[in-house]
Amino acid sequence: MIGTLFKLLGALGVFLFGMRVMSEGIQKVAGKRLQSILNYMTANRVAAVFTGFFITALVQSSSATTVMVVSFVNASLLSLTQAIGVIMGANIGTTVTTWIVSLIGFKFKITTIALPVIGFSLPFMFSKFKKRRDIGEILVGFGLLFLGLMFLKESVPDIKNNPEVLEFLKNYTDLGFLSFIIFVSVGSILTIIVQSSSAAMAITVTMAYMGWIDFETSAAIVLGENIGTTVTAYLASLGTNVNARRTARAHFLFNTFGVIWMALIFRYFTNFILKIAPWDSSLQVNLPLNLSLFHTVFNITNSLIFIPFVRPFAKLVEKLVKPKESDLSTEYKLKYIKTGLQDTGQMNIQTARAELDKMVSVIDDMFNTFLTVFHNPDKKMGSSVEKVRGMETLSDQMQVEITKYLVECSKEDLSERSVMNINAIMRIVNELENIGDSCYKLMLLTERKYNNKIQLHTKAMEEFDDFTSILVESMELYKLHMNEHLEKQVLDIVYKLEKKMNNLRDNLKKATQYRLQEGSNVKSELLYLDLLKHFEHIGDNNLNIAQALRQVY
Predict the structure, then answer these.
(1) Which of 408, 428, 370, 442 is nearest to 71 (CA)?
(2) In angstroms, rounded to a whole number, what is the distance separating the alpha carbons of residues 95 and 87?
(3) Nearest 5°: phi and psi at 271?
(4) Do 130 and 247 reside in the same domain of the chain?
(5) Is residue 35 part of a domain?
């Protein structure tokens, strides 16, 4: 008995390891496409459902998708209603793995597929090109996944030689609705333990195929697995903002409500599945296909029921999950999330990019606030100074947290392109923080100008506007191309603007010296030189950001 248990655990380990290797390989190869899909998901709720489906089908992990969604909501890039749509799609997407296992894993001798696939991957694995090695990783993962499935089949005792196992299960299959509750709970616990609904499904399908459990029992376990998979998203939401926690709660409620309405019509629904199956559903060999069909039809139906009620559902979740005192705090925290067996290194980089967009917005707000206050000073400008001070503190925190996050990302097994992106983002974050410091110092200079009633020379004000117009043009360029590869012609424009600013700076310093010789106000001209100094720093930072974006892919 103990030997059989360890064989089962070993088989499960091979299956999970294969799934992880395959998932990581797919994420490395499809990293850029993932970003394109993520950009599309904000269109509408239907697009969000399809996005969730495609991402989950692509990376073979609903846990990876839901963790990513929680991260994006935490970064304020997705609303709660959009996130709910993606979660619906992820539930449908996770059925793809079940179909692969059912169609291939039990219809052919697995070693005739798995070992040749692993053999075919060897030239890719030893290639000097990183992308080919990533493709080899996908093939190895695919082969190991099916080898693990074969070991699972061989590790499950033959029911004819182990009738006591069937007798044990029979004690719980004839208890009516209580049986349904018991096996839903079994499915939930199994998924929580293995931290993968796909792996739990593979175990369930194997037990059904080998005759341990019948169709209704295995279907109830599958429903429980839908609830168990929500635990990963819940763990990912710990320490995040209120909207991210609401997303995790929405995932749990959506899957739980689905199981509740299914409990009311369970027997009728399972009979319906057996009738619409395009194969002989009475054959034991087709039980995995019956389960796959049940899993898919249930998740599609559940999504179709909820799609019209996404907004009311989101409002319900908002009422259930109230903001905590920590949500009102200005302290910024970006928690790096790992999901155990289903790491999502590539997707975590997307989260870092989302935070970078957020930081750009903060810096842009700081600079625009400075310009507004400089041209429109009044007695209430103290509140604007405090606002910029708060944003400067926030930018400092963002620099620390995003950098720490990227360091954690760099520890994952990533493609060379992703490593380059991490290094570029780190550089950009540092430059943005420097711009934030300059904006705050510019605000302090503006406050000093107002409090000491310093008036800049008329010519100096004209020069000030000329310099800021070039500076704004430079900032708009990197904002427009943030998180994408900067073409050489755009970088050349930034170089020209930088050269233009340098020439203008030299001319303005000479003009200042000339005005001082002509008897201009010393305090006024010194203040003006201080303003130019910080403008120059921001211009240098803009150029450095553009150079870093040239390295982003």
Answers:
(1) 408
(2) 13
(3) -65, -40
(4) yes
(5) yes
DSSP string, 290-314: HHHHHHHHHHHHHHHHHGGGHHHHH
Backbone angles phi, psi at 457, to 5 degrees: -60, 145
Residue 526 covered by a domain: yes
* Cβ contacts of 444 within 8 Å, gap of 6 or more: 385
- Indicate the burial class of 523 (C-beta count within 10 angstroms; 0-12, 13-18, 19 or more): middle
Q: What pLDDT sits at residue 250?
A: 87
Domain that holds residue 159: 2-326
pLDDT at 59: 61
165 and 249 inside one domain: yes
- The neighbour count for residue 326, using CB atoms within 10 Å, is 11
How far, in Å, CA of 346 to CA of 134, rounded?
Answer: 13
Distances (CA, A) of 151 to 119, 292, 324, 369: 19, 21, 48, 64
- Which among 9, 19, 6 has a CA at the least distance from the CA of 341? 19
Residues of the chain with pLDDT below 50 are: 158-167, 328, 330, 336-342
Domain count, the chain: 2
Q: Which of 371, 477, 352 is nearest to 410 (CA)?
A: 352
Task: Please state, in angstroms and rounded to a whole number, the distance separating the CA atoms of residues 165 and 228.
Answer: 25
Burial class (CB in 10 A: 0-12, 13-18, 19+), 78: buried
